[in-house]
């Protein structure tokens, strides 16, 4: 049985524009190598030019879906924001095809680490007057998990992580997240950043009408300068990247006499029984 | 989390020529086929049903009647229509047949030859998938020679009376409406017959070893009475059905490549993992020769289909162009399926692999919408100026 614990978060600051209804919903998206794409390392770094397919990071898809549902329930505008290279614009068009209204691409020129990305995203959230921010709990490529909390810190608002759904009810934003006892329902009476785990809703598919509308949508391209953000220096250097170690060859056993050995291996080595 | 395992064989990067919109449509259909069709297709074939949720999904995606504009239709390019057919047929030819019949054979004639009232009444509901359509041209005794059809319509003053029978009708039993070609005073005309019209029935044909996930039916008209406003006003003669068939055949020329790609992918994966004489069979020259031949033919077929799509979109095509592409691409797809079965060895006959299903499907695809031989005769007539269909020159 799942226990539901109710938690009320005190936020540090409310958004000035929080109106409850017809909210501006910002969804922070990242384009990552598709989870099935082959990753090639050359000279100690991932060679991005060899990535065959780029996709929206899967947790971000749940954030987007939740944002679309919120927009449909209470009205409002969904602002899809990404910080990345030119190729990331395609992902914004994909977001538009399922219903994103405003598309914002922040150039990643000069971006050295995730704190830079957070600064830019937070500045864009302010610039576009968002009332609520949704994002994935971590990106499928770096798995850093810092964007949501980092953006919340800069904006001085609450951050709820690992959420599976976000709803607007009676002037409050409520969300569901796991707790040590099962799940907990957390409510905020102000602005917050919500970092999504796998959501509880099925992701919507685009359709032809959405794709044709998306084609006509203009992507607002902005730079750190446009946002008035001084990126500054970075204390972090990515020294090298290495592929995971090659999987050890499998072992083959034939004949009933090996059953005790196999069982022992499954129990003690593979830890599956 | 979405499954995105499929990476299409595209040796000459032909898909890079697609517009962004066409690529997005491709990805939408491709993802749906991966997630909903491929995991369920073998069961659908075993049960001999076309899953109704596929009808709903095709309608929701908005791909039915892809290149038609207005009346709630998608208004995409013919290139996009081709891409949709290719992605659907990678799942199964029966699925692509459903979409071909709905869009090119049932919606198209209403869109091109129907009255405003007919277009407004039927097309939006057909584009959304709410109403399924079918197309009645072929008869038990008249396949390649539809001009001699027996089905006839009589003008009874305030209604038409239809008598006759059609055969091999995809979607027939599940259709709300049928676009039926019949002779009125000796001239072929198109009529819209609705499911509940008196004197109309559409029994399903059972026992197929091919296109098992597609519904195939007879259409029977026994003093079938239909209102006067159901005749398509703007077309007479074989031009009507042949216009529809041109569009459907165009879709097939792309669709067959989807089947071929599915067979190639399976054969490649199997050859790389199947060990004989201590080495993967992919390392043997005879197998590599087969895989190289498959890639060669698929690549040529892709270029043919893409260029034909450009001609369709620019209006510079002739029916012979379509005949060549339909004939070639189905022919190579069928041969690729057979060679893929060979590479799979005995495993190739199991439904664990898509091979035998695609092969059996393609036997139908080779025959329907103009048989392989008829398309050769169409091209033969183009080359020589002499028609060789009939002795009555």
Q: With helices defined by DSSP (H or I, 4 residues minimum), what is the helix count of chain A?
A: 7
| Strands of chain B, count | 11
What's the CATH superfamily of chain A, by name? HUPs
Find the CATH topology of the largest domain in chain B: Butyryl-CoA Dehydrogenase, subunit A, domain 3
Question: Could you name the CATH class of chain A?
Answer: Alpha Beta
Spatial strand arrangement across the major sheet of chain A: 10-14-9-2-7-8-15
N-C termini distance of chain B: 62 Å
Q: What is the total domain count of chain B?
A: 3
Any low-confidence stretches of chain A, pLDDT <50, length ≥5?
Answer: 10-20
Overall geometric form of chain B: globular
Give a short account of the largest sheet of chain B: 7 strands, mixed
Q: What's the end-to-end separation of chain A, in Å?
A: 25 Å
Rg of chain B (C-alpha, Å): 21 Å
The SS-based structural class of chain A is: alpha/beta
CATH architecture descriptor text of chain A: 3-Layer(aba) Sandwich
Give start-end ranges of low-pLDDT stretches of chain B: none
What does the largest sheet of chain A look like? 7 strands, parallel
- Greatest interface (CB-CB under 8 A), with counts per chain: A-B, 23 and 20 residues
